[in-house]
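Support request, please re-run this one:
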Amino acid sequence: MSRLAICPGSFDPITYGHLDIIERAARVFDEVRVVVFNNQSKSPLFSVEERKELIEVSTSEIPNVTVDSYGGLLMNYAEDVEAVAIIRGLRAVSDFEYEMQITSMNRKLNEKIETFFVMTNNQYSFLSSSIVKEIAKYHGEITDLVPKVVEDALKERFKQG
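Re-run finished. Output below.
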């Protein structure tokens, strides 16, 4: 029986911080499915399909990683695909309170699926998709923050402005 973990997020866009978490989860679980969720409280720069494609290219060297998208509750998706775990990345202590609330609610919805918190590598602790987008918008250097495919997509998106 394969042990499937889900790494959920909006990934708008995926960064090296996300990839660090995904790569480390892929060493522990048989399969890691990166699932793009459309967070209604955010205005995404990239469509769900564009984000999926960027993730697929960025994770193509990790054989046990697949990419999907979903529009409903994470725990419904996790149950449907028979996942055993949810992977959540933590950058700093400030992330913990929010993540704890989400995890507690998820556990209430389905106590059979565990949540694992993975601390990001210190070199990415400051990194967020929002920061990357802000830097890219003003044509700042993002080479060390995102994969080349993401850098190119951001440059293309912001070349008009």
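Strands lie at 4-9, 31-37, 65-70, 85-90, 114-119. The chain is about 40% helix and 20% strand.
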